[in-house]
Specification:
alpha+beta; two-stranded antiparallel sheet; 5 strands; single chain; three-stranded antiparallel sheet; 5 helices
Length: about 210
């Protein structure tokens, strides 16, 4: 059995044996540290710092351009500081009144206490920020498996969600921005990048 299958949503379906080998503490810590090694410099560099991305050196981006919805999606992705967005509980959708509505990019982060900076686990886009997190969502299943794996290893999970609402209304443009962010941050719970991290909490993407 591949390690990546241990925490796949639905892995313990009726009639199938339960996973016999839960991830060990050192494996989870090593996985988090690998992700932090990539994302840490992005958090600390700041939105205007030059960075090599997909083999291309991008020009300096003025953070003041962050609100320009017509800016190139790669440039906007570089200008975004996730920590500048307000963190919210993952249960925000149960509140009587949603704190945000309309089009948005949303980011799910964890703040492991043993790491100096958060981990960006997932990036998504929606035209209905007040409703996207209701009901079934692959990321919710991955987060549940992630939290359970950490709990078994006596590690803390401190997830939060942040919404970036100054994004294009047009679906195509918004998805281009989402993909630019995924390429930059390589969040492990997105299907596009799960293979890179051998993510042990997601369904097999192969």
């Amino acid at each position: 059995m591949r390690q990546g299958d241990l925490f796949a949503p639905g892995a313990a379906a009726a009639g199938s044996p339960p996973p016999a080998l839960p991830l060990e503490r050192h494996q989870l810590l090593a996985w988090q540290e690998r992700l932090a090694a990539h994302q840490g410099p992005l958090f600390t560099a700041g939105p205007s710092a030059p960075a090599a991305e997909q083999g291309q050196l991008l020009p300096e981006i003025n953070p003041a351009l962050l609100g320009d919805k017509n800016l190139d999606p790669i440039a906007r992705a570089r200008a975004l500081d996730p920590l500048g967005l307000q963190p919210q509980s993952l249960s925000f959708w149960r509140w009587p009144s949603a704190p945000q509505r309309g089009a948005a990019i949303y980011l799910v982060l964890d703040r492991p206490p043993h790491l100096p900076l958060p981990l960006l686990l997932y990036v998504g886009e929606t035209g209905r920020a007040d409703r996207r997190w209701k009901g079934d969502h692959d990321c919710k299943a991955y987060l549940a498996a992630y939290g359970e794996a950490l709990r078994r290893a006596d590690l803390d999970a401190r997830p939060s969600i942040r919404f970036w609402c100054d994004v294009p209304e047009a679906v195509k443009a918004r998805r281009a921005l989402e993909q630019a962010l995924i390429r930059r941050w390589l969040p492990p719970f997105n299907k596009e990048t799960a293979g890179r991290w051998s993510t042990p909490f997601t369904a097999d993407q192969g």
